[in-house]
Amino acid sequence: MVKEMLTGNSAAAWGARLSEVDYVPAFPITPQTEIIETLSQWINDGVMNAKFTNMDSEHSMITAAGTAAATGARVFSATSSQGLLYGYEMLYNVTGWRVPLVLINVSRGLSAPITLEPDHNDILSARDTGFVQIHAATCQEILDTILMAYRIAEDKRVLLPVLINMDGFYLSFTREPVEIPDKEEVSKFLPEYNPKHAFFKASNPMSQGVAVLGGSVYSYFKYQVHLASLNVLTVHDEVAGDFKRIFGRSYSAIESFKMDDADYVIIMTNSFTIKGKAAVTKFRKNGLKAGLLRLRLIRPFPSKELRTLLNGKKAVAVIDQNISPGSGGILFNDITTALYHEPDRPEVILSFIGGLGGKDISHAEFNHIIEEMGKSMKTGVVPETQLLYTKGDLEQINNLLNIAGKTSGGLGGIEELKD
Amino acid sequence: MKQSTNEMIKRIRFHGRGGQGMKTASRIVGTASFLEGFFVQDSPLYGAERRGAPMVAFTRLSKEPILERGIIVSPDINMIADETLLNDQTANVFQGTWEGTVTIVNTHYPASHVRNVYGIVGEIVTLDITEIALNVIGESVLSSTAAAVVCKLTGMITESSLEEAVTRELSSINLKKELVEKNVQAALTCFDRIPETHPHYFESIKEDKKDEIVRLEYADPCLGSPSVYAKGTTKLKKTGNWRLFKPVIDHEKCSRCYTCFVYCPHSCISIDEEGYPQIDYDNCKGCLICFCECPKKVISKDREVRTW
């Protein structure tokens, strides 16, 4: 084991290298990341024994990844934001084929307008594809989760591909100390993949991903994907147990922070959770019983674990770093659904949208969340979904609107520009 | 709530231009802190990357796990490696600086002059690291010199960790051994030039920024959609101070062939009434394509003296 300063991108590349993947198909152009750059260098230098192929798009890349996995190869690839969307159609295909590849997404707010920093509309658009989804919050967790992901994906109770999410810039470009495990330790945890259900071989012809042309047959196979995904709830915990035994680091489907006696709970995902932890630490210093949950396993959704953690709590606030226009926060819906039938559920559950396009969530915004929870407890009135946006943010946008020739308070000045 | 700066964490922000080495500087400080056994984060932010465009990089070091990520809004140490950024509103180099911030400006001016002109709050240190880099390394790349100044000002990093960090980081980007050694020498020179402990560094207090949440209302699509109505906004952004070298046309020898006018990628060359090309120095970035393309070789390049 060595400890080094690694970016999230380097940590992901190390995860693939230590998993001894056989094949890395990649679309090499923007929005691709240094993950692929690093792997192609290692494969070229001969320190990694895998086949690397440049593809013409993410659509081709995911097709190549899925088909290679169907031959029994261990496959890894990576993409980001618009790239994931470009390959979207094939995400459904590869889950239908029941192939256990691992794909990394580096989150970035979707265009338009273009931005460079993260939110999760990109990864959550793949929510219903059948991919298992795990969202990481540190560079170490990215490396570790890749190792765990192959164990989960290749388990015969699952056989589904895994999407791992990391935030652009906040993890992908950020270096921090990361433990790189020894190869020998990794091989104890993650043995070679021996496919039992799908293997294209010239000597053993078979058909994969066949047409079914009928609802009842389609329903059968589709529901199998759902059942396989639900099995991950058990398999994840087993794999995490083995991981802890060998490497000493422990991961659960939901990370708890200062939850034991917490009355006020904030729920977040991904790397911005660190801002929530800092806020909760500050609230605790001021005597407020605050706690935080980070949803790590997004699909399957860990409803049962969530119920256990939240029953009996006074107030919950969900910060969705995503937006479903016309509805609100995406994860808020999953969370409230999980709690609806619980007699001992929290009294109020509030919905916030924060950190879109990487916007900071300041302590003033966390303060507002706590105040709103208190107000709702008192009055019993729960507000509609709120955007976390400050006066300072508004001043900045008004300044920019002026520079762009859009004067606030009527459209004076704009009319004359129209001719 | 008031907070003493004598907390366990140091937040360092680096301002420079693409190509000056601030990403590497943030990494050298990060690696040096890592070697000292601290919790560390470093990250660059350069948006749509272009040589010469303003960029920032960040390093955090702490004795305890770091409960922060991303942009440093309020730095404890603020390195301004390019003095022309002081005037650049979009670079916003003084954002979040406070009485406890130590600002370092790469300039030949004394600290008092910089303070008088810009009204900088907190401590200020000046050192002409470009001159040191040019003398010792032979290039105006500032990664190791900027990192060395910052390492010293933290008061938490030793000379040997700095030396090891410069060597590791510059070797990892395949710099030749000879050049790495020169960088180490330049770094150690800068490390020596900064006084041991900074007088007010551990004494100031900072206020939590107060802000309130606002409710966004529906706006007319003329306002609420990401379009720009104003014409000629590119002109608002003067890029002339990106130059290291200034192209100068010798109009006595110019044959008015317009080759430079055609090749200028930023439309900074116009033709005057007598048919001579004139350069808009407010916006010329000093790419020197005109210098290269001039068929009669009557365009020279002059090293620019940075003034503000």
CATH superfamily of the largest domain in chain A: Thiamin diphosphate (ThDP)-binding fold, Pyr/PP domains
CATH classification class of the largest domain in chain A:
Alpha Beta
The oligomeric state is: heterodimer
Count, helices of chain A = 15
Alpha carbon gap, first and last residue of chain B: 38 Å
The most extensive interface, with participating residues per chain, is:
A-B, 45 and 40 residues
The helix-strand sequence of chain B is EEHEEEEHEHHHHEHEHEEHE
The major sheet of chain B is characterized as: 6 strands, mixed
Task: Describe, in plain words, how this protein is organized in 3D.
The complex is a heterodimer of chains A (419) and B (308). Chain A has 419 residues and is α/β, with parallel strands linked by helices. Chain A has 2 domains: 2-247, Rossmann fold; 254-388, Rossmann fold (3-Layer(aba) Sandwich), CATH 3.40.50. Chain A is built from 15 helices and 15 strands. In chain B, a hairpin with an 8-residue loop joins β3 (39-45) and β4 (54-62). The longest helix of chain B is centred in the middle third of the chain and has 17 residues, at 177-193. The relative contact order of chain B is 0.13. Chains A and B meet through β8, α10, α13, β15 and α14 of A and α1 and β3 of B.
